[in-house]
């Protein structure tokens, strides 16, 4: 039997934002908070940074979380995952992407593919860019 954290896995149902997170709406709250004037100093500095800096921070956090996983450090995976999600939401906001757009895409993929997984590649050309070419 497949299990996650000692509990049997449930059949996947297309999700809405509230189904995806234990504390529903936390990502939306973070997204909205990023638009306020009274941000904590580190968040204010990141919000004012270039999109390149924001993107680099996201990649950095993904690497750190991956290393924690490779070394089997569950607590590190949890902590770095929170950092990764934080930086992802900062980048979404910088790109003008709202969380509900992400949830909508996830729901569409779940309906199409059974789970909200990565879309299959289509007709790679010489550019190697697949569906985004």
Descriptive key words:
Helix Hairpins; disordered N terminus; two-stranded antiparallel ribbon; 2 strands; 6 helices; 133 residues; mainly alpha
Written account of the structure:
The protein is mainly alpha-helical. It has a domain at 21-113: MazG-like (Helix Hairpins, Orthogonal Bundle). 58% of the residues lie in helices and 3% in strands. It has 6 helices and 2 strands; from the N terminus they run E-E-H-H-H-H-H-H. The protein has helices at 17-20, 26-33, 41-48, 51-70, 74-95, 99-113, and strands at 3-4, 7-8. Strand 1 (3-4) and strand 2 form a beta hairpin. Helix 4 runs antiparallel to helix 5. The longest helix has 22 residues, at 74-95. The chain is globular.
Quick synopsis:
By secondary structure, the protein is mainly α.
Q: What CATH architecture label of the domain at 21-113 applies?
A: Orthogonal Bundle
Rg result: 17 Å
How is the CATH topology of the domain at 21-113 named? Helix Hairpins
Strand tally is 2
Structural class given helices, strands, pairing?
Answer: mainly alpha
Name given to the CATH homologous superfamily of the domain at 21-113:
MazG-like
Beta-strand fraction estimate: under 5%
Count of DSSP-assigned helices: 6
Uncertain regions: pLDDT < 50 for 5+ in a row?
1-5, 9-22
Which range best describes the helical content: under 10%, 10-25%, 25-40%, 40-55%, 55-70% or over 70%?
55-70%
Major sheet details: 2 strands, antiparallel
Widest sheet: strand order? 1-2
**From the structure provided, what is the oligomeric state, counting identical versus distinct chains?**
single chain
* Separation, N- and C-terminal Cα atoms: 40 Å
Mean pLDDT: 78
The shape is: globular
Element pattern in H and E? EEHHHHHH
Q: What's the CATH class label of the domain at 21-113?
A: Mainly Alpha
């Amino acid at each position: 039997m497949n299990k996650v954290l000692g509990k049997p896995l449930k059949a996947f149902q297309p999700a809405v934002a509230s189904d995806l997170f234990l504390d529903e709406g936390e990502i939306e709250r973070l997204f909205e908070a990023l638009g306020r004037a009274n941000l904590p100093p580190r968040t204010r500095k990141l919000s004012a940074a270039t999109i390149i800096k924001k993107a680099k921070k996201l990649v950095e956090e993904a690497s750190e979380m991956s290393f924690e996983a490779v070394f089997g450090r569950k607590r590190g995976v949890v902590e770095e995952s929170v950092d990764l999600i934080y930086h992802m939401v900062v980048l979404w906001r910088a790109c003008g992407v709202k969380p509900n757009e992400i949830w909508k895409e996830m729901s569409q993929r779940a309906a199409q593919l059974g789970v909200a997984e990565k879309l299959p590649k289509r007709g790679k050309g010489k550019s190697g860019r697949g569906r985004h070419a």
